[in-house]
């Protein structure tokens, strides 16, 4: 007998004979794997039916909110990782970038968030050139950023939930002045968004490092979306999450779209990209292999482009 622990349902079905489902520390089901589906397991894990694939929602598109022109950037090893990328994100749409890890999407996210220098090109947020703006200036201009590394970059593990929320509000005049945070107001805000986003925690004073991956991601999402950003950069927002947390995050992205935010979604999950995106841009070795309308994007074509194959006649 080999015990195997995971929340990846396809793997459960592929390798196990029997499965025990835990939810909030209690056994909810003991099942024979050959007699159940992913949907059955997800229901036991979450306690309700789970929607695996969301229907793309049409929202009237607004003005361009992000314009990226011929952007290039170096990777951590000093080599060119991003090579002349150009695209536009409009209000009320999701622009999805699909790629295997290590093909320049991480560098692109950091350039846009102000965490990595652009070697060439220009980034415009609304009507403002932010190519050389600081991360704080970008936040103040209406950008929101969800990093792929929720523990290393997106949170400070030793800090409380209140302090982690403060990281996106310390510069806001409603919550502090002259470098001093209004702790009463920020604690009230933290309580409101923890409740709204259903972050499971014993208290607001709990350390971020004690949250599960899904609850930590909810906290980061809540902290960012509660500011109602004009542009949201979501880099691998559901990576490593269970089916319930994944569904929650995807629904929140769709809600932000309906509120006319422009969203740049970077994901290695092809199903996620195809179900959520209005535009799909497969990236390979730092270059877009094409930009395809979401309703025309086919799995086999996008998968091939992620591997460096550009279908005949496909433009950029």
Per-chain topology:
Blueprint: H1 9-15, E1 18-23, E2 26-32, H2 38-46, E3 64-74, E4 80-90, E5 94-98, H3 105-113, E6 120-125, E7 128-129, H4 135-140, E8 143-146, H5 161-166, E9 176-177, E10 180-181, H6 183-196, H7 213-225, E11 231-235, H8 243-258, E12 262-267, H9 270-276, E13 279-284, E14 287-288, E15 292-293, H10 299-306
Parallel strand pairs: 5-12, 5-13, 8-11, 11-12
Antiparallel strand pairs: 1-2, 3-4, 3-6, 6-7, 9-10, 13-14, 13-15
Helix pairs in contact: 6-7, 7-8
Give a written overview of the molecule.
- With 316 residues, the chain is α/β, with parallel strands linked by helices.
- It has helices at 9-15, 38-46, 105-113, 135-140, 161-166, 183-196, 213-225, 243-258, 270-276, 299-306; strands spanning 18-23, 26-32, 64-74, 80-90, 94-98, 120-125, 128-129, 143-146, 176-177, 180-181, 231-235, 262-267, 279-284, 287-288, 292-293.
- Helix 6 packs across helix 7 and helix 7 packs parallel to helix 8.
- The mean pLDDT is 89.
Q: What key attributes describe this structure?
A:
10 helices; single chain; 24% strand; globular; 316 residues
Q: Could you give a short account of the major beta sheet?
A: 7 strands, mixed
How would you describe the shape? globular
Return Rg in Å. 20 Å
How many β strands by DSSP?
Answer: 15
Helix share bin: 25-40%
Q: Average pLDDT value?
A: 89
Helical region count?
10
Q: What ranges have pLDDT less than 50 throughout 5 or more consecutive residues?
A: none
Give the ordered list of helices and strands. Answer: HEEHEEEHEEHEHEEHHEHEHEEEH
């Amino acid at each position: 007998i080999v015990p195997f622990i995971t929340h990846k349902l396809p793997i459960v079905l592929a390798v196990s004979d029997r499965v025990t489902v835990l939810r909030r520390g209690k056994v909810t089901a003991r099942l024979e794997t050959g007699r159940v589906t992913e949907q059955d397991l997800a229901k036991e894990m979450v306690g309700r039916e789970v929607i695996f694939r969301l229907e793309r929602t049409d929202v009237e598109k607004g003005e361009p909110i992000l314009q990226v022109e011929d952007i290039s950037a170096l990777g951590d090893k000093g080599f060119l990782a991003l090579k002349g990328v150009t695209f536009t994100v409009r209000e009320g749409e999701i622009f999805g970038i699909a790629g295997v890890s290590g093909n320049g999407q991480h560098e692109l996210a950091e350039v846009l968030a102000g965490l990595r220098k652009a070697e060439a090109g220009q980034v415009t947020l609304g009507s403002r050139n932010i190519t050389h703006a600081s991360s704080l200036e970008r936040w103040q201009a209406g950008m929101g950023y969800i990093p792929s590394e929720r523990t290393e970059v997106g949170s400070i593990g030793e800090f409380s939930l209140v302090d982690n929320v403060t990281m996106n509000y310390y510069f806001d005049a409603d919550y502090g002045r002259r470098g001093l945070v209004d702790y009463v107001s920020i604690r009230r805000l933290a309580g409101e968004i923890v409740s709204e986003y259903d972050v499971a925690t014993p208290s607001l004073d709990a350390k971020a490092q004690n949250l599960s991956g899904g609850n930590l991601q909810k906290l980061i999402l809540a902290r960012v979306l509660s500011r109602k950003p004009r542009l949201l950069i979501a880099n691998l927002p559901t990576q490593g999450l269970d089916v319930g947390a994944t569904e929650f995050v995807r629904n929140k992205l769709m809600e932000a779209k309906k509120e006319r935010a422009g969203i740049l979604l970077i994901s290695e999950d092809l199903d996620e990209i195809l179900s959520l995106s209005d535009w799909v841009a497969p990236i390979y070795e730092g270059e877009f292999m094409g930009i395809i309308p979401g309703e025309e994007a086919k799995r086999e074509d996008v998968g091939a482009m992620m591997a460096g194959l550009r279908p005949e006649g496909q433009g950029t």
